[in-house]
User: What shape does this take?
Amino acid sequence: MGPVTVTPTAARQARFSLMPAALTLLAVLAMLIVTSARAQDGQDVDAVLANITEAARALEDASFLLEGKLVNSDGTTFTLEIDILTVPPQNLASAYILQPDALADNIIVMDGPAVYNYTFLTNQVMVFDADDPDALGGLLPTGEDGATANFNFDLGAIFAGFDASIVEVFEGEFGETYRLQFSNKDPSAAILDVTALVPSSDWLPRTLVFLQADGHVLAELHATDLQVNMGLDPEFVRELPSDAEIIDNRR
Assistant: This one.
């Protein structure tokens, strides 16, 4: 199956289609276009992060297509296309994987203290505690309380162990856009730097680029077709194939 162009709505309508699956690239779920630049102005980085936090906390729900790539150290590139639905007040999110092909039609639902991983190939749903270090190979992000996993637009919370700075402010696709740099305080960490693009029109991040110490791009993620506060039905976000076998690994 080659690259697929599909809207989040269409992806949900086709969520039970036929494709093989695997778990080897689920690390991307742990991560969660510019014109000419002009001089940095306006706000300092703390004010920008505060605006991002406020915007993230105001979200009732969001839908977007996560597009981008993962790049191995040998240069092998994997295309990413994942349909994301999230209801932050309920610590609820789902990810329907379109690409990479090896994971196509897998679904992950993060629902408060539980994580549900649907594998198409076996038609099984594996259920884990969200704070289980072995859940999905320990690749899922944990929330502030250490007991939930979810997608989060709050860059200040996600990169709390990083030093933040404003690289530039420029006019981009969504108007005035801040290019932020997050530098890991641990120089030996696998991810050393992260660059983010955040438009001031809504303060919701659109692009994240993860870099290793040698400048190697580890991942490049773009949130496209972003829609917010649509009144998403939480039961729709939780939906998984009704005929799947349930394997409960919760403690």
